[in-house]
# Entry
Amino acid sequence: MSKSQIVTGGIADDAVTANKTSGVARPNVNPLIINGDMAVAQRGTSATTLTDGSVGFHTVDRFAYNDFGTPSSQHTMTQESLTSGNAYINGFANALKMDVTTAQSSLDADDAVTILYKIEGQDLQLFKKGTANAEKFTLAFWVKGTKTGTHVVELFDRDNNRHVAGTYSISSSDTWEHKVVNFPADTTGVFGNDNARSLDINWFLSAGTNFTSGALQTSWGAQSNTQRAAGQVNTVDNTSNNWHITGIQLEVGEYTSSTIPPFQHESYGDNLARCQRYYQRIADGTNKMIGLGSAYSSANFFMVIDPKVTFRATPSIDISSASNYFLVIGNNQSDFVDDFFLEAQTTNQMIRMANTSDVSLTQGFAYFTQTNNANAFLGFSSEL
# Structure
């Protein structure tokens, strides 16, 4: 049997009563949270030594490691395959796992670590935030943690520097539990109707006194760091500690564990395509095809790559650059190259790449390119 908990206004409450549900249904068919089942991990399935300076995406798409201050704790982040437990029997085959590899039992005041999810403003208009008809938020997820006690999850409105926080309790160590956290409506501060970053969701793993010395901000208000994570347990105080999450859903309105709509599972292909709006891994590993191009001159090679889906915004290149990581082949010859750079790019047209530094080819001939090292990769990022 699954364990489930409803949280209202930052206080755990397992009781289910009629006045805690508004019954507001989300009108669109796709989940608001992309990759909430942790199935897609284009960058890889494991990343080690995540610590101060490691902010960003490493494994599971759309979920980033985030920190404040200069934490000395270190994590290994993995896309975990599930074969048992309550989350698994409820339909989830993957999870995001954070394994503490270097503990930090004493936190500096400005230290904090979170798992961060970012949402575009144009995908949040159905919450009607900043209007008289503003809707409540319900966040649900499966979580497993070694450290029992109070944990904090925060919604942060980046357009208006406003935030609200709620708590959930891990009752049993290393046991999958389902949590439902309610957040109030906010009639102040409209989300921008554009493709920019408007809402952050932060699951706190640790937080120093700069984030915990005030009363938890359980109603929407102006940014106050001391109220962001009050009550948060320190999950990084022991290398035996792990924290896992999957099955994340964000719903319009107020729901309980009994009334929340079922998690909306997408096909892997649909899920991947939505992730590729923000990041596209073209190739990684040895002997993986990249694309076709030609030698404009003996020392100038140009190549085009067709994006799989339209990017959120003009992308940047994400590439491993090292000696002989790539190979250009054609005209009965080949040449090792170390790097490529973006020569021209848009959100939905073919991307033109070039190498003008270490290539020696025959002018006018066509060539194809491939990776040439197990650690080589090429991708394009349009992350928020």
Remarks:
- The two ends are 38 Å apart (CA to CA).
- Confidence is low (pLDDT under 50) at residues 7-24.
- Residues 88 and 139 are 19 Å apart (CA to CA).
- The domain at 4-275 is CATH 2.60.120.260 (Jelly Rolls).
